[in-house]
């Protein structure tokens, strides 16, 4: 029995090791000292981890907690601790002023155990690690997902006091479930208690990354020894500013406060120092991911103070906590003596102060009976305060001097807060008016100056400066050419003292713009010294005694076409003649257009040296291609094309729908409207073809329609409706009001067995088609005739029972009933009939009753019924 229990326990233990923890959102370690003995001090350790609710993940069970010696980081022991308990902590929003509150929920896991450790002079570090934090945190570098986490606690050693190991750690007690709305004020408590009465001091610190190779399943590994790497914070964030610069921590209370950043997930780590007798004996940490939601808080919030220290005494102030739920605003402005000078109920208060001074503005807002708030601020009205600064010196490792250029009309400037923008140092700040700072890395530095005056005005000015390892020197050119005995002026720009070498054939060697006239190719070097910071550059001056020029060969072009002239030359300037036919007569590649044979002469210059050459351009007329006018053809007919050229060859395109495409008179067999192009070529020198085109428009197919066969009675008007073309011709014209329109009216005075009319319809191109319609004329009154029998045997004859209308406008109902009185067929359209089935089932032979309802051509209703025999 004992062996079976051991096997089962082992299986359960291995299974539990497979449930690796991730989606961990925070953690901390704390302890109490429960006693001491000859073996050392006994501590009751608690590891507390936070997990995202509804993540479908699990805490490690068990997990490793390891102990290391401080100072040497030597491993002391590893303890495998089972999960003790879990708690669900969910915050219910009871604040009616919070709109769209988030779901704030955590699952907290506790690991508790005891360990006995001998006293050690440096003390111990307690470490627990998890594989994965929550992904997608806003304050970490993008792309660094699947980061782990390390949580530590510190047991002090005897070097901070003989009784220091008998320590109870500081324990965080702040509420971990807090609603934080983006862009709104908030507070978040990381406060702690210490049962030893130690002084506690709080600070924001960097969160630690997790183990890089934690192992999985049965191969779970104990934590790595210190030191531990930090998580990679993104731009604008750091361990001391995990929510940006608008958030800070009270070092005496552990309360984080400020204006929340944009919605997202942020990791925060808080360190609390335990101070005993003025000495820090241990530092405990709490690491937590917090959610900033896109909710909003209905309330009043004003900037404090509101400064009119610039160029105006007019204020336009609004509630910075905007919400469309606010129903009432109440503003009150008071002066220094408490007298009200302005009130309004508008959402925005606008007011121009008549005098300088300090005023109070109060805003009260109401959203509902249970949701009201107020806010007050001081308004400083002291216009004419303008911050500014200048600087001198931009060399690496050399002092850069900064000068305050701020001005004020009221009061005096009495405070300066400089940030020199050096991201590699925490000492890049000064409170002097005109400080100096030495940069140790080159690059662009964003310098910021915050100044204030004795009236309370404060403002910020910033600007970028570039720090160089060498002062920037720029040359107008680094390579040039002169022709002896010409000279050239070298051009350098920069802020410093210039010195050129070698000092031969040079005038003004100690200026930025010397003139040189060397007799051979010479490299001139320039040194620029800016306060002991030196940069170098050089210019090669090539010297020649002639100009090289080789123009392009003479050429032919098509008449009216442009041509780009070109040449090979080391000249520095060019002049072309005749200039009027060129787009740029000073270019080495001008574009020419000429209608006659032209000699283009180009002269290339290097200073006073020059050389000329000529290009002859001969324009040749384009070959001529001619096709007749556009044409139009009927559907599925052909068109004869007629082309002519004055060249030596030609090509038709597209040729796929042409017969005899190798002739000038092909036959077009187009299915759709097509543009045919005739290209003519010759061998006279113009390589381009002459073109002409013709459009063959193919008219759509004509489909004539005369109408359906019908029957009328004597003197009943019959409206014809033909379609399909542009013109119509009816024959015979018997009884018709007109024979050359689409819609004649027929009237008949005598009965006929049937008149078969033909209508011919034509379009604009003369294409035509014809259709037929038969009209029967009855002598009877308007009637509907129904056959007395039919044979639905699918032989194509008498298979369907249909009513035949004579003198009727329309048939509204034709119905058939069986002997039981059940309607087995009905139709409300002329031309439809019964096929002898009901619901798809053929009906038996026999007698059936029919009825018909109609309206005759005079508008009178018509009703008739009778019987029909179905024969099979």
From TrEMBL:
Residues 329-381, 416-467 form the PKD domain. Pfam families: CHU_C, PKD_4. Residues 1-21 form the signal peptide. Keywords: Signal. It comes from the Bacteria. InterPro entries: Ig-like_fold, PKD/Chitinase_dom, PKD_dom, PKD_dom_sf, T9SS_type_B. NCBIfam families: Bac_Flav_CTERM. This is T9SS type B sorting domain-containing protein. It comes from Limnovirga soli. The lineage of its organism: Bacteria, Pseudomonadati, Bacteroidota, Chitinophagia, Chitinophagales.
């Amino acid at each position: 029995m004992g062996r079976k229990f051991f096997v089962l326990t082992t299986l359960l233990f291995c299974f539990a090791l497979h449930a690796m923890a991730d989606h961990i959102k925070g953690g901390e370690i704390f302890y109490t000292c429960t006693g001491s003995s000859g073996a050392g001090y006994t501590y009751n350790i608690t590891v507390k981890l936070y997990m995202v609710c509804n993540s479908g993940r699990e805490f490690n069970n068990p997990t490793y907690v390891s102990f290391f010696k401080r100072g040497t980081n030597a491993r002391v022991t590893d303890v495998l601790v089972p999960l003790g308990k879990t708690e669900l902590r969910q915050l219910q929003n009871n604040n009616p002023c919070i709109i769209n509150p988030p779901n704030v929920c955590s699952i907290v896991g506790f690991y508790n155990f005891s360990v006995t450790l001998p006293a050690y002079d440096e003390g111990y570090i307690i470490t627990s690690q998890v594989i994965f934090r929550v992904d997608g945190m806003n304050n970490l570098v993008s792309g660094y997902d699947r980061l782990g986490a390390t949580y530590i606690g510190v047991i002090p050693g005897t070097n901070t006091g003989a009784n220091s190991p008998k320590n109870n750690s500081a324990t965080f007690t702040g509420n971990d479930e807090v609603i934080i709305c983006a862009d709104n004020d908030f507070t978040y408590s990381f406060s702690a208690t210490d049962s030893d009465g130690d002084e506690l001091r709080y600070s924001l610190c960097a969160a630690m990354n997790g183990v890089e190779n934690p192992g999985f399943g049965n191969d779970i590994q104990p934590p790595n020894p210190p030191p531990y790497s930090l998580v990679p914070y993104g731009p604008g964030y750091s361990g001391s500013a995990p929510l940006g610069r608008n958030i800070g921590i009270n070092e005496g209370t552990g309360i984080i406060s400020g204006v929340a950043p944009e919605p997202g997930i942020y990791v925060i780590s808080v360190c609390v120092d335990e101070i005993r007798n003025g000495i820090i004996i241990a530092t405990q940490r709490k690491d937590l991911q917090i959610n900033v939601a896109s909710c909003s808080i209905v309330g009043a919030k004003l900037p404090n103070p509101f400064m009119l220290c610039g160029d105006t005494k007019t204020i336009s102030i609004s509630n910075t906590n905007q919400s469309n739920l606010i129903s009432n605003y109440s503003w009150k402005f008071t002066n220094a003596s408490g007298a009200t000078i302005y009130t309004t109920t508008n959402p925005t208060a606008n007011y121009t102060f008549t005098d300088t001074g300090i005023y109070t503005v109060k805003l009260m807002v109401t959203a509902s009976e249970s949701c009201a708030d107020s806010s007050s601020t001081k308004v400083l009205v002291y216009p004419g305060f303008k911050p500014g600064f200048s600087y001198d010196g931009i060399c690496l490792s050399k002092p850069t001097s900064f000068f305050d250029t701020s001005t004020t009309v009221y009061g005096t400037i009495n405070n300066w807060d400089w940030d020199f923008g050096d991201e590699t140092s925490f000492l890049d700040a000064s409170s002097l008016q005109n400080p100096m700072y030495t940069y140790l890395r080159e690059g662009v530095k964003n310098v910021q100056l915050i100044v204030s005056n004795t009236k309370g005005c404060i403002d910020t000015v910033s600007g970028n400066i570039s720090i160089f390892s060498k002062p920037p020197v720029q040359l107008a050119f680094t390579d040039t050419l002169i022709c002896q005995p010409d000279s050239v002026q070298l051009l350098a720009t920069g802020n410093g003292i210039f010195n050129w070498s070698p000092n031969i054939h040079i005038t003004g060697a100690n200026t930025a713009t010397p003139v040189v006239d060397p007799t051979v190719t010479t490299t001139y070097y320039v040194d620029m010294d800016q306060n002991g910071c030196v940069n170098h550059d050089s210019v090669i001056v090539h010297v020649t005694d002639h100009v090289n020029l080789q123009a392009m060969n003479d050429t032919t072009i098509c008449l009216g076409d442009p041509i780009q002239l070109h040449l090979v030359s080391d000249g520095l300037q060019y002049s072309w003649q005749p200039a009027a036919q060129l787009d740029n007569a000073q270019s080495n590649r001008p574009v020419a257009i000429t209608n006659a044979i032209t000699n283009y002469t180009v002269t290339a210059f290097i200073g006073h040296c020059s050389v000329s050459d000529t290009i002859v351009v001969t324009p040749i007329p384009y070959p001529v291609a001619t096709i007749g006018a556009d044409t139009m053809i009927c559907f599925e007919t052909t068109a004869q094309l007629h082309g002519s050229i004055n060249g030596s060859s030609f090509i038709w395109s597209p040729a796929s729908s042409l017969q005899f495409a190798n002739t000038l008179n092909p036959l077009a067999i187009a299915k759709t409207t097509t543009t045919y192009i005739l290209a003519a070529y010759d061998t006279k020198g113009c390589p381009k073809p002459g073109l002409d085109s013709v459009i063959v428009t193919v008219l759509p197919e004509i489909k004539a329609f005369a109408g359906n066969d019908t029957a009328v009675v004597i003197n009943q008007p019959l409206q014809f409706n033909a379609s399909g073309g542009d013109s119509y011709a009816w024959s015979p014209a018997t009884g018709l009001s007109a024979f050359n329109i689409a819609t004649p009216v027929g009237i008949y005075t005598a009965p006929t067995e049937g008149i078969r009319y033909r209508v011919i319809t034509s379009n604009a191109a003369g294409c035509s088609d014809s259709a037929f319609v038969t009209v029967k004329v009855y002598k009877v009154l308007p009637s509907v005739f129904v056959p007395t029998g039919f044979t639905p045997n699918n032989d194509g004859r008498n298979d369907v029972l249909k009513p035949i209308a004579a003198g009727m406008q329309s048939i509204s109902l034709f119905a058939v009933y069986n002997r039981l009185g059940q309607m087995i067929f009905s139709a409300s359209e002329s031309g439809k009939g019964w096929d002898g089935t009901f619901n798809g089932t053929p009906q038996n032979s026999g007698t059936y009753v029919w009825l018909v309802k109609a309206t005759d051509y005079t508008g009178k209703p018509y009703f008739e019924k009778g019987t029909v025999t179905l024969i099979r």
